[in-house]
Queue: 2 jobs
Job 1
Amino acid sequence: MNNSFSRLTRMVFAAALAVVFTSVAHAQNATSQGDKSIPLSKVEMKNRAPVSKEILKVNLPKPYETKLSNGLTVLILENHRLPTATVQFNISGAGAVYEPADEPGLASITASMVTQGTASRSSKQIAEEIDRLGANVGASAAFGSGALGVNASGLSDNMDQWFALATDVLLHPNFPQDELAKLKTRMKAGLKTQRTQPNFLASERFNRAVYGNFPAAVISATDESIDKISADDLARWHRERWVPQNAILAIAGDVDAKALTPKLEKWLAEWHKTDYEIPATGNPTPTSTKKIFLIDRPNSVQTTIYMGNIGIDRRDPDYPAMVVLNQILGAGPQSRLFINLRENKGYTYGVYSNFVSLKFAGPWRAYGDFRTDVTDGSMTELFNEINRISSEAVAEKELDDAKRTVVASFALTLESPSQVLSYTTNTKIYGFPEDYWDKYPAKITAVTAADVQRLAKKFYNANAMQIVAVGDASKIKSVMEKYGPVEVYDANGKPASGGASASTPGSR
Amino acid sequence: MSRKYFHGSLRLSVLAFGLLAVICIFPTAGVPQSTPSKSASEPAHSVHTPFTESTLPNGLRVIFSEDHSAPTYSIAVVYDVGSRNEREGRTGFAHLFEHMMFQGSENVGKGEHDFLVFSNGGSANGTTDKDRTLYFETMPANQLELGIFLEADRMKSLAVTQANLDNQRNAVQEERRLRVDNQPYGPTFELIDETAYDNPAYKHSIIGSMADLNAASISDVTSFFKTYYAPNNAVIALVGDFNTAEALATMKKYFGQIPRQPAAPKVDMTEPAQAAERRKTVTDNFAQLTRLDILYKIPPSNTPDWYALDVLSDVLANGQSSRLYQELVKDKELAVGLGVGPEQARGPSLFSVAANVRPGKPVDELEKAIEADLDRIKTGGVTPEEMSKVMMEERVSHVRALQGTLGRAVELAEDTTFYGTPNLINTQMDDYRKVTAADVQRVAQKYLTENNRTVIVTVPKSSGAPSRSGE
């Protein structure tokens, strides 16, 4: 089954599902300089479908909230439709962006290892208990994030048992040497496999380009760091960073909030508050000169292109306007990029834009996989769309459609209790006022065409663009050179030697 | 239902056997995994999906399941046509046609369908697999009429033009490049179907060949539409926040006038018994790890033996406590990721065992170890603990699949199309519960035999092994 939702989950806000309409006039403008061999098939509005004009008022249910004596914030959202519950411990300060520079992978290996042995259970016992209970229990720490998640879910009727198991891996992992050695072997094979994926190669280079020396530049462990990280390092990271005062426990599903709270005090009594404070990460410094990177993937039949730069952090007051801007440019199948490069030109199966906003500013990007022989036309059209949205005000109808999309898409998130709860978790993480989501639709509605253009001018700057292309260098190097000097890398991320030489030193 | 996922750090990204099993019109949305049904005998919570069904005079079957827990609904439209219906020289056509369904109709302009759905807060997509073509929308509850109207208009009056066909042919060919030609193991998935099957129905990929896609013509599109996109060849399910009487009236209003067509030709799915092992080696341009695929021919889904084989696959590889994961990934470290499962299919299916070989280990050693494990099941059977664990896993995965409105709508419509009853969603768990340890041992002995299998070894090009060789 396809797992294509994953592309969306990286985005901070669920409105990613939304899209926006491009008028016929715009499509004609945009295609005037492009490939002329394929007939245009334009978007056409007949306006005969029965659309309800009623604005569906959606109220996000409010979770029960409390704080345990150890400082842990607890959010509980009851929903009894199905006999299941999901639990997430979101632990700030324990994620990859806080890792020492020479130990990329420390946070994620710690997370992987907690289910590989505790003071009272072996790796195999943990696996057997999880499967016997029909539960999921695990931890993960994504690269580029400051937080770590311990996640558990299962049936509500045996929740006491799987919650106890989750508590055990949360509090008492013992990082056995033999299991660590085996995990390292599997991870190294995983690294090799990642390098076969054009999107991994593109992300790796893109993050280095936009983040520079900022820790979120790193998107995977390395063979060297895997060798270096010891069981003691993991135990120390766990002891120092996995602390209750920096964590939020979010529980959604078939539970009784009032009855559960005293149980939580008891179950988590051994998790003690510390005086550890999360260090400030600061913000990355955006690169102000355009750079072009080419990762040679011989025999590639497509060119994977990422282009973008650093945008805004999550607390930025321009966040709602950024959401609207992204809708218009490339959030979905009715966005400008998709209409132009897929529907009108047939260059690609999919082309999108997104942006990442966390406690620190993350990048926006436009990206897609394009047939090798239309790499040139695709670059032209990507720049056309990026320039157009900066140089022309968005028409009123297109803007209204984009805003309606963002607001209306709230309704769909109500099908998933844990997704609803994630809104509240975010207000806690970012320190938003309690009524943040109640006021959010009004903030989206208030975004103007001038706001959109101002942000596009500021962030979609063609002269500062960081451009990454993954493809067959023998076929596309000359194309990329039209846009400036090209640095060429091989699939191992090393500067390419010989003919396709790097014109400037590596970006790190 | 129950396509097993792959365990280990590589998970789906590497080993996704199902990569080509379903392909979508857009890469941005997906169909939820539809999974077996009905809560187990456990008394505390029985999870029952209520529904009503009716058939319109033109043969269109419609199923409604009200659920007012969120202000949303999903509509799933299943047409009884998939890549198994394709004739020779037109592989990939069912999927190419699916793309045409987003190009406009009498009252909906090209691209307007998605604009209306997405800009009103919904999501939509279409997917094609071997056995069916599926279209779906999930929308806020106040847009019930819109979703029904959009699906009816394209069933009634699809706009077929040369420009649309050429344009979507390009998009599909890009999709093929993205998912097959540019991906590690992409060609392997095609080779599996080409090698394991004899009947042409399943003996080709869903995405089809570039040459066949180039050959597709306007007249192909027109006749395909008339034959397969008839109301009497479709099932529609609605799940969510609506009133059934109102929804039925709206369905009648928009779908009622679409004329019935002669029944579509039946597909001969007869698969001759396999007499000897088939074995091939393929060189992969992009892969870094050797991959082993072993496929055994088995009966279609929703048969007692298929359920027993699904239970067997859970024992072997569902969860980190499963036999193969513990032995091959953890203890012997022969594999870095693996997956086992019977494919979902209305016709002859395949039981798949797939693994990525740990660098430095010989693929032969992994194959022997897998075979030894299968032999242990054949001679020693499975334990009561394994059986109860698997039943728990099936029950949980069933309950999880009932979360959103879309998963339920898809399952109701598919089950009705494939097996004639929407109620499988409420009874399928019983089919799992009927499986005994003796059944599991019996199906292992019966189907997992040397003569009944196809073995494909994929070797990274960088290792300098031979390219695709004969059997």
Job 2
Amino acid sequence: MLRWIVLCLMCIVWPAHAELSIEITGAGEHQTPVSLVRFAGDPLLAQSMLEVISNDLSRTGLFKLIDPVGKQPHKVSEVRAAEWPGVETLLLGTIQEVDGDKLAVRFSLFDVVRNAELTAQVVTAKRAHVRTIAHRIADLVYERMTGSPGVFSTRIVYVNRDQDNYRLVLSDSDGYGEQSLLTSKEPIMSPTWSPDGRQIAYVSFERQRAMVYVQALDSAQRRLIADFPGSNSAPVWSPDGKQLALVLTRDGSSNLYLMGSRGQGLRRLTQGYAIDTEPVFAADGQSLLFTSDRGGSPQIYRLSLADESVQRLTFETGSAFSPRVSPDGKGFVFSLYKEGVFYIAVQDFETGQAQILTTGGWEKKPSFAPNGKMILFATEVLGRGILATVSSDGRVKQKMVAQRGDIREPMWGPFLK
Amino acid sequence: MKRLILAILLTNFLVACASSKPKEEVVAPMASTQPSATSSEADAQAAQAAADAQAAADAQAAADARVTQGAADELAALKSKNSTHFPFDVDVVQEADHEIILMHSSYLAAHPDVKVRVEGNADERGSSEYNLALGQRRAQNTMRALVLGGANATQFETISYGEEKPRCTEHNEACWWQNRRADINYDAQ
């Protein structure tokens, strides 16, 4: 109980209308001390933006946010370095209303120590999209400070189960802007993003057994693409978006199949009585990683699409499930089940070295943020299904708890195009 | 011993139902009233034959009703004991479930028009997709056992719910055991 109280002291409280509440623990190896000065312009808009940017940067664990304590420079020329002891970087700017319903936000990222402007840009968008603008600014700040693109403008998909009410949910990566893509009295599983971020494929039991649907996000049109006898599940897109791999039991056992992205042309990839499941494409699209118990216990294997040869990848003590390849293609994340506990682990392709990133629990279904810096996964706290993230070096962790229901089966979406 | 008790119970069911039925009335049709000295004996014989036929028909109806009631009881008994259970990560039908298999396969063999859906499940100790596949195997192996026991493969659909429709959600063996099962469902759409 005491640990919970301590953790909460470190947490940042989000405004009540987010569907998810987020708690952060841990810190990056180095935390840059930054101060965010509320932008000049409409105070309400400025305050909203300040909150969104603060929350975004805090969630990374890479920044130590220092309160400006009354100082309000809005331009670089107004900054007095001596007034900012302990602060390395300042964010300041102005909000202007333009063209009736638009905002033009001019911001500057300033290095107080070296007395140099790191970047200055203008972000313009409709007034209604305050959060979008703020996320974009946070992305640009993050990128300038770390060298990696920010993921604050990305979205996630997951399943909310509340008694026997199931919802497929799409939200911003901070839990805001929740949309129900599907509501059902029957289970929903395994949602997966298309590479262009425009479609979600998933498994629905609405017709009394597992079948695969593809749904467009902008039109809510959905297509049933696999209803073969038995179970149809585990859909995943190829990196070029032209094919889907999935798991069918139509030929008597759980095997991997390939089909065109519209459900055309079926090619069987694996044979045999073993359970083969959870296929994912390698970054070059030339092979699939998958889970199989062909060696006696569930482990991760790689199948070459050219000759259908299979090679085992995981050799850790315990069973391995649910592989997902890192965006840079150098390794993969998976769920390791060892001595009754599930952990999230990453493994490098070249060295074959695996590293456990989490302290263990019911940790399943990991996926990378598109910048490869964070991993989203499902876990449980006090009997409730929640989502969590861990930074790829294992140092920074978040818990994301829904207002109601158990949340599970998450996947992080791609960069917006 | 269990089998003997089950048999006795079933028999008692049938007997109890039979004795609770009202006594069938045998109604003789009205004999023809046409006076005829020469056909009276034939008439009497015809009347007797008709009465016998009616009695036979009524007795058959009573027997059919007993059979229908017995069948309904048999199906109820089957539905109340319709799950095979499995050890962790195992999908082979267990020795302990052989009686259940025999019960259901006998019934299915005797009623070739009856169709069932075998639904496999798994406990939560794996990924949801792996558990979907494990449940499918459990359903298929249960079906195979029933076919070996005399049912016809055309009487079956096999599906899996994996870990998606658990009977309980506690993280302990008592709950996990409940979820590691395949159900023989007579009421599927």
